[in-house]
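Bumping my old thread because nobody answered last time. Still need a sequence for this structure:
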């Protein structure tokens, strides 16, 4: 039985439970693949088992934490359903309200949702293709303000929701608040409504790592030729002033392990490296001939990580063919998404200023098989503002705006 049918069946049998929360919290679920229950619902949470179905109910955003949301954008209703894979505990803030309250000196006991339920698969009814989920989650977890503008992302997520009126029209009703209860009464009617919405739905696989499975974990069965390169798109420049190091002290940025987050995105990174590797071999074949193609080497596969770059290639300088080094940074977000770089990579760029380049793969869509990129020379990389998290490169910001 396919995933969609399993979700419909669980709903139709009255076995599905309802999870309820403000719509900005569901943006975190979109990025991470998990939902949280508070301490009062721990007994319900502990009963969840693999294969259970949860229906996602969105309520309006919390105005205490969210700005940019138009009252004309209706958000109440069901926005998806997921299949439970496992449960776990968390201690760090991940939802926007947790992040903001944990930094506030006026809140002695921030509201937390420590009981996580991880989904193997989710059927999102919202227009999630237009939401750069990982970028939005980075904004949420890095929020150092009292409120965050998530209006456009909330609108996309709520776009194809199953509305309260649509449910009432077919005779399905439920307790509007509350979470964890089973949707038993007239459950078959609800399943029928989900089937109607399924034509506009997006199925995302999350898996054991609680991250969307968007790329291969090895070079096997990955076909770079299936992807369409949509050209170069550079970051847009901004005069926005970045926070100083002193301003960042005590903020949530300090609580996040950026290197671990980078490790969790290893699968996506490998996809980007393979795309660049194949393009680079093609470039060398055209520019220098077949005899030079063997000198294009994918280092993490052949020699392991730690060299300070991902791909060793060659370039013709006019006075001879020399080695050239490419470091690939990949994201499903847009061109303005910050990226992470190690001290070793920065040092290698400084030691090889004429033969080192960052290839930034962005807007990588594993469903549509499309991507864009831009490139940074070693000098451009070294001149860009970097937040000291080993290091976070803030693209699209004028250097003189960084303290």
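Sorry it took so long. Here it is:
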């Amino acid at each position: 039985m396919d995933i969609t049918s399993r979700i419909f069946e669980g709903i139709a049998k009255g076995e599905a439970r309802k999870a309820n929360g403000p719509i900005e919290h569901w943006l975190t679920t979109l990025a991470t693949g998990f939902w949280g229950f508070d301490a009062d619902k721990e007994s319900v949470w502990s009963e969840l088992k693999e294969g259970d179905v949860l229906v996602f109910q969105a309520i309006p955003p919390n105005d205490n934490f969210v700005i940019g949301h138009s009252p004309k954008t209706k958000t109440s209703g069901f926005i998806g359903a997921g299949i439970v894979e496992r449960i776990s505990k968390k201690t760090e803030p991940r939802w926007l309200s947790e992040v903001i309250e944990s930094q506030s000196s006026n809140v002695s006991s921030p509201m937390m949702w420590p009981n996580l339920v991880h989904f193997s698969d989710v059927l999102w009814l919202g227009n999630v293709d237009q939401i750069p989920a990982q970028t939005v989650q980075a904004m949420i977890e890095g929020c150092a303000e009292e409120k965050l503008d998530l209006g456009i992302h909330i609108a996309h997520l709520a776009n194809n929701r199953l509305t309260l009126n649509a449910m009432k029209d077919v005779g399905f009703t439920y307790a509007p608040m509350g979470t964890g209860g089973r949707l038993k009464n007239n459950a078959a009617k609800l399943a029928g409504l989900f089937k109607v919405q399924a034509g506009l739905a997006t199925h995302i696989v999350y898996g054991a790592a609680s991250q969307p499975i968007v790329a291969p974990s090895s070079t096997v069965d990955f076909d770079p030729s299936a992807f369409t390169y949509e050209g170069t798109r550079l970051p847009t420049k901004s005069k926005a002033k970045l926070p100083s190091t002193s301003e960042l002290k005590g903020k949530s940025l300090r609580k996040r392990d950026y290197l671990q987050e980078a490790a969790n995105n290893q699968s996506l990174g490998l996809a980007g490296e393979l795309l660049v590797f194949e393009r680079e071999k093609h470039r060398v074949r055209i520019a220098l001939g077949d005899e030079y193609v063997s000198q294009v080497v994918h280092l993490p596969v052949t020699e392991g990580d730690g060299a300070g770059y991902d791909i060793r290639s060659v370039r013709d300088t006019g006075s001879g063919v020399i080695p050239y080094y490419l470091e690939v940074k990949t994201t499903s977000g847009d061109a303005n998404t910050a990226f992470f770089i190690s001290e070793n990579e920065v040092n290698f760029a400084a030691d090889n200023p004429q033969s080192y380049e960052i290839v930034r793969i962005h807007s990588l869509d594993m469903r549509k098989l499309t991507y864009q990129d831009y490139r940074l020379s070693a000098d451009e990389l070294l001149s860009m503002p970097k937040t000291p998290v080993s290091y976070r490169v803030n693209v699209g910001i004028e250097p003189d705006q960084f303290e």
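Confidence is low (pLDDT under 50) at residues 209-215, 243-264. Let me know if any region looks off to you.
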